[in-house]
Amino acid sequence: MLHGIGASGADLISLADRFSGALPDTAFHSPDAPSPFAEAPSGRQWYARSPWEARAEGVRQVEPVVNAFIDELLEGYGLDPSRCVLLGFSQGSIVSIHTAPRRPAALGGVVALSGAMITGDTLEAEVASKPPFVLVHGIDDTVLPSAESEAAAAKLTAAGVPVALHLLPGLAHGIDERGIAIATEFMREVLAGRGPAPTRQRRA
Predict the structure, then answer these.
(1) d(CA 120, CA 136)
(2) pLDDT tens for the 204 residues of the chain, in order
(3) How many CA atoms are closer than 13 Å to the CA of 111, on its beta-carbon side?
(4) Which residues contact 89 (CB under 8 A, 6 or more apart)?
């Protein structure tokens, strides 16, 4: 689970308590992003958000860091990549959306909460695997507009990656009970080897 900018792994790992009832045999890990965040003394960031035009390069630079963490966990548990789901929120979601389809062996799935795709222009040329995605985004999000997830879904679909998009009315930049339920069901399905039927858009 990859946290948002200015937060830490400790913030997002609290979701494990919400997921564990439906996924009792699942281990949850939420690392701290590698770089400090100047605007919050205890916060971290996966890449610098400014200047704007440097964000894509920042995502690419952190990709091997995330991959190394995933690979270390898979080796430690003795698991195939298909047994791993990558979940991200906000900036962590952006990193997850970029990283997963560029891994040579497909992960079990990707849960992208309030995210965006900022390296979509090269996705079709760089895609190496096609794990199923579920994108969840609040329609009232003013930090990252839900149009970002709509655009990400379109680019993933064009690259042949299965994706389900859920746009949630009344939700701003955050995670609510609906998003938790969607993520939980998705993880249950993909970890059981039953990928969800892709859909372009659902409103809940």
Answers:
(1) 18
(2) 999 999 999 999 999 999 999 999 999 999 999 999 988 878 999 999 888 778 999 999 999 999 999 999 999 999 999 999 999 999 999 999 999 999 999 999 999 999 999 999 999 999 999 999 999 999 999 999 999 999 999 999 999 999 999 999 999 999 999 999 999 999 999 998 876 655 555 665
(3) 25
(4) 1, 2, 3, 4, 12, 113, 114, 115, 175
**Residue position matching structure tokens 């630079």:** 61
Angle, CA 16 vertex, CA 62 and CA 3 arms, to 5°: 25
Point out which residues pair with 199 in neighbouring strands: 164
Read off the tokens for 172: 């701003």
pTM of the full structure:
0.94
Residue 82 is encoded by which pair of tokens? 């298909």
Q: What whole-number distance in Å separates Cα of residue 182 and Cα of residue 111?
A: 9
**Three-class DSSP category at 151:** helix
Q: What are phi and psi of 131, to 5 degrees?
A: -70, 150
Report the alpha-carbon distance of residue 117 to residue 123 in Å, rounded: 9
How many Å apart are CA 99 and CA 31, to the nearest integer? Answer: 15
Q: Which residue ranges form the domains of the chain, and what is each CATH number? A: 9-203 (3.40.50.1820)
